[in-house]
Amino acid sequence: KSANPQWREQFDFHYFSDRKDMLDIEVWRKDNKKHEELLGTCQVDITALPMKQTNRLELPLEKHPGSLLMLIAVAPCTGVSISDLCVCPLGDPSERQQISQRYCVKNSFRDIKDIGFLQVKVLKAVDLLAADFSGKSDPFCVLELGNDMLQTHTVYKNLNPEWNKVFTFPIKDIHDVLEVTVFDEDGDKPPDFLGKVAIPLLSV
């Protein structure tokens, strides 16, 4: 019930290669659980923004009244990685020892926001739902921790896909929940939901 909403949410998007990319933003209005209406869209050319500083942008919505106020910072990626199983970032014993020392009890209050790392190895899925007419699916896996999101590649025409990927997240809140969702890639259409699991960090 507001024409001037304040969300104050922060989202981290991770880029691991030098590629030109646009940030697409959509604003939606929700009447109830079933009815939604698009209130406008806008784009930000990430490559045009200065690095290592917070950019304050007021973005008019295309073909609709209103604008969005955003703070966008482009910075080198730290603490987050995607790698193959054979080159696991924390596989080196000396590196593991350094991390154990960094997060030992005596260093607990050195940096309150630096809680630790979560490393997730996404190996495979078994007996997935067939989403295509061919009796197969094109599954990929999305991992979400807080407002961080990473995903695997798509394995086409397979109900038992093997991804063998390693994801490393910095932990910002020990009460966060790791959500792992499997989707079926469906071309230009939104992906189909194939299943989900939620793992509270405190249970690990």
From TrEMBL:
It comes from the Eukaryota. Residues 1-59, 93-204 form the C2 domain. One of its GO terms (cellular component) is synaptic vesicle membrane. It is a multi-pass membrane protein. One of its GO terms (molecular function) is calcium ion binding. The keyword Cytoplasm does not apply. SUPFAM superfamilies: C2 domain (Calcium/lipid-binding domain, CaLB). It is found in: Membrane. Gene3D superfamilies: C2 domain. Belongs to the MCTP family. This is MCTP2 protein. It comes from Cephalopterus ornatus.
